[in-house]
Amino acid sequence: MVIFVDMDEVIADTYGEHIKIYNAEFNGSLTTEKCSGTEVWKMVPEAHQESVRKHATRTGFFKELKVIDHSQEVLLQLSKKHDVYIASAAMQFPNSLEEKSDWLDEHFPFIPWQNRILCGHKHILKGDILIDDRSYNLTNFDGRGIQFASPHNVHTEGFERANSWLELGEKLFE
Amino acid sequence: MVIFVDMDEVIADTYGEHIKIYNAEFNGSLTTEKCSGTEVWKMVPEAHQESVRKHATRTGFFKELKVIDHSQEVLLQLSKKHDVYIASAAMQFPNSLEEKSDWLDEHFPFIPWQNRILCGHKHILKGDILIDDRSYNLTNFDGRGIQFASPHNVHTEGFERANSWLELGEKLFE
Fold first, then answer.
1. Which of B102, B99, B118 lies closest to B4, judged by CA?
2. Alpha helices of chain A — where are they, by DSSP H?
3. B3, B4, B82, B97: best mutation site toward chain A, by most A Cβ within 10 Å?
4. Do residues A113 and A86 touch, judged by C-beta distance below 8 A?
5. CA B39 to CA B35: how far, in whole Å?
6. pLDDT in tens, A116-168
């Protein structure tokens, strides 16, 4: 099987980084829980929103992201049985491209460059499974779309859902 | 229609740049004609081959590439009628990623980030047409593959061929 796996919010914790930066710079007290059902930038005062929306354009933002729990061990096992690709809609942020490649080298060295995709629209992907947090990516995918839980999609319905990598592992090793 | 267009040797002249750098650094007299049917690095003395093979890892290499004749005008017209994507197997060279994005901004601003793909294997692409110079990319593509002429593929057979962007324009606007 060909399995595509999104990066941000699926294997890389962007929410955590947004919150960490915001709290540090504006003496804030945001938490992931407070951002449930929405986006981080929408949870800050209007005067700070522009700053949060530009986090992703900063040099180093994508280098610092924490790995989502258990994604490494499950993907390592999956990649032994299946053709696993990382597919990130990264082209919006040219500064992120090399950082994302370096981040994958560091945390997912078992996914070789041949299996890494930085793109825009994801409906050009041809494969069996797409694991992604964003509904608009899943809607236009031809195969089995699995929505990975993220604070912004806790109220989203209509997709097969995985709340953790352990749950994903169970689904995909059935 | 969804049309994928490769970068190196299809819209960006890597051969010309390899030859320019080699001749400047080794006082060479290579020409594109001399490299017909082979790769640039195979046409230099063995002691210089490693140097040529590493051109693509240099900062700035992809920034300097000349645009292949008529690719801009034909792609501009194509992109008005079709869903045109640039798809480059760039992940092997992390240094190239941002440079390729910048180069597209400069020379192909009408192809938005949503329609840009930096990848490894191209058999994960789902669309109607792939224009590429490399046989291994065309072989595994499900749709119509068109081999774009490049010095290295002058003797390659088995694919529909386009010798220039003017010819491609005629084919695709039929």
1. B118
2. 14-26, 46-53, 71-81, 96-107, 135-139, 165-172
3. B97
4. no
5. 6
6. 999 999 999 999 999 999 999 999 999 999 999 999 999 999 999 999 999 99
Q: Any chain A CB within 8 A of the CB of B37?
A: no
Q: What structural domains and CATH numbers belong to chain A?
A: 2-13+66-172 (3.40.50.1000), 14-57 (no CATH)
The Cα of B133 is separated from the nearest Cα of chain A by a number of Å equal to 18
User: How confident is the model over A16-75, as pLDDT tens digits?
Assistant: 999 999 999 999 999 999 999 999 999 999 999 999 999 999 999 999 999 999 999 999
Mutate to test the interface with A, among B4, B116, B124 (most CBs of A within 10 A): B124
- Over its C-alpha atoms, chain B yields an Rg (Å, rounded) of 16
Q: pLDDT tens-digit profile of A71-113?
A: 999 999 999 999 999 999 999 999 999 999 999 999 999 999 9
Residue of B nearest to A128 (CA): B124
How many angstroms separate the Cα of B43 from the Cα of each of A150, B15, B23, B150? 53, 12, 12, 15
Q: Are B128 and B148 in contact (CB under 8 A)?
A: no
Q: How far is CA B88 from CA A8, A23, A31, B129, B150, in A?
A: 22, 39, 39, 14, 16
Q: Do B102 and A114 touch (CB under 8 A)?
A: no
Other CB atoms within 10 A of residue B53 CB: 15
Provide the mean pLDDT of chain B: 96
Count Cα neighbours of B4 within 13 Å in the Cβ-side half-sphere: 31
Taking CB atoms and an 8 Å limit, are B118 and A113 in contact across chains?
A: no
3-state secondary structure of B116: strand
Contact B116/A119, CB-based, under 8 Å? yes
Q: End-to-end CA distance of chain A, in Å? A: 13
Asked whether the beta carbons of A62 and A89 are under 8 A apart, the reply is: no
**Rounded Cα gap, residues A98 and A63, in angstroms:** 9
